[in-house]
Write a structure and sequence with these properties.
By secondary structure, the chain is an all-alpha fold. Helix content is about 25%, strand content about 0%.
Length: about 60
């Protein structure tokens, strides 16, 4: 479902708390910085894992988000 012209979805949007809706990022287009950003997130999560901290963007494998 496309939510409208405002991206990213505003933090106060009712869609965030609407149970039947799964909000996911728009990834149809690549950005020049995407590879670097993915690598930075991976490195940050590797450090967090080794330090026993909660991971960023962790997927809940029960509900898959």
């Amino acid at each position: 479902m496309r939510t409208g012209n405002r991206q990213p979805l505003p933090g106060d949007s009712a869609l965030w708390d609407h149970d039947p809706v799964l909000v996911s990022p728009h990834t149809a287009a690549l950005d020049a910085a995407e590879g670097r950003l993915i690598a930075e997130l991976f490195a940050a999560n590797a450090t967090r894992l080794l330090d026993g901290q909660e991971l960023v963007n962790r997927v809940n494998t029960v509900v898959f988000y």
